[in-house]
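lol so apparently i was supposed to do this last week
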Amino acid sequence: MSWLDKITFEDADTWRREFGTPCFLYDESALRAAAEAAKAFPAAYGLTVRYAMKAAPNANLLRCFRDWGLSFDASSLYEALRLEAAGVPLERVSLSSQQLDAGFADLHRRGMAVNACSLDQLRRFGEAFPDGRVGLRFNPGLGSGGTNRTNVGGPASSFGIWHASLDAARELAAEHGLVVERIHSHIGSGSDPEVWKRVAALTLDLARAFPKVETVNLGGGYKVARMPGEGATDLQRIGAPVRELFERFAAETGRRLRLEIEPGTFLVANAAAVLASVEDVVDTGAEGYRFIKLDTGMTEILRPSLYGAQHPIRVLRAREGAAERDYVVVGHCCESGDILTPAPGDPELLAPRPLPEARAGDLCLVGGAGAYCAAMSAKNYNSYPEAPEVLLCADGAARLIRRRQTLGQILENEISVE
Ligand SMILES: *Cc1c(COP(=O)(O)O)cnc(C)c1O
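anyway here it is w/ pyridoxal-5'-phosphate bound
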């Protein structure tokens, strides 16, 4: 039974009174268990686990992972600065960004590693740090990921240096006297061991072309099962053939490469839920649907609207009674796409779910809300304030780690020109 299934109406009602709804609940023990599983990834010659912080960037979560021995992947300079502000040493941060802001030079001087993610980024790095040490992010030409929107490799993806530009990258590095010490690929590989094996092999081939490479980073993309019946990634199973490839590479070349992995989703997805109140229950007649309206939605959980992602939903009630009905669960925005029960993979379609009969004032838990929810949502749409975040600590305490935003904060940067 997961931490989420153990939450009772009484627990949830206590948190509603203390923090209000909607609010994010993060379970520290679940975060810890995921971190320990990641640290056990099979590696022949050393392992660095980097938390891809874009999944959930609250400083308290970052400090948990720091204290449990993880390093970090920043996908923008702002994220790197946020890590530093949270107390993470820059030596534990690596930047792989679509946009290389000029400030990268200062952070690199102070310890942050940089992966050049395009030929132009490599040129700019070389100009700023002649004879410097750099990593290269490649697009190995292979894509995976659950949907077209989560696919980050292959010809339809702009991330990284296209593998066929290898010679151009080598020439640019030589021109600036750069030492390429790290090869990086992140294609969102999912849970299939065959895909991981192929990506590892392609990435090792790239490492072969750069004799000073010491580290190979295979990125993140480890799928988790949010819903019963969804496939989850077994890290031991996908890691075993990867370890073998590293060993074979060492036997051939004499080079013992360190492995880096960079999970975001895997570390946080199932460690959080949104606690929401049932605002209303309405229907559209015999030929229509029965809807549960929550006081949350795309303002906290955008993934269903964006990808047709599935999140488990529990209705919590004070009263007894086992009757279930089919409900479409919707959010509070004036936007027909604000729906929490789309068809799997198709945000256009409604997929009613059997749920306990609900009334206004009941509570709901929307699970699987740790990754790309608080971090990536339609914040402030309809002028709803950013929801608070709460850490359910291993010692049993529920601690507020982000306050609810105020209307004043939403208006703060508006300038009146009347
Ligand atoms: C987003 C990202 C990750 C993490 O991806 P998940 O699917 O959340 O595991 C890792 N590395 C890089 C470079 C990323 O951009």
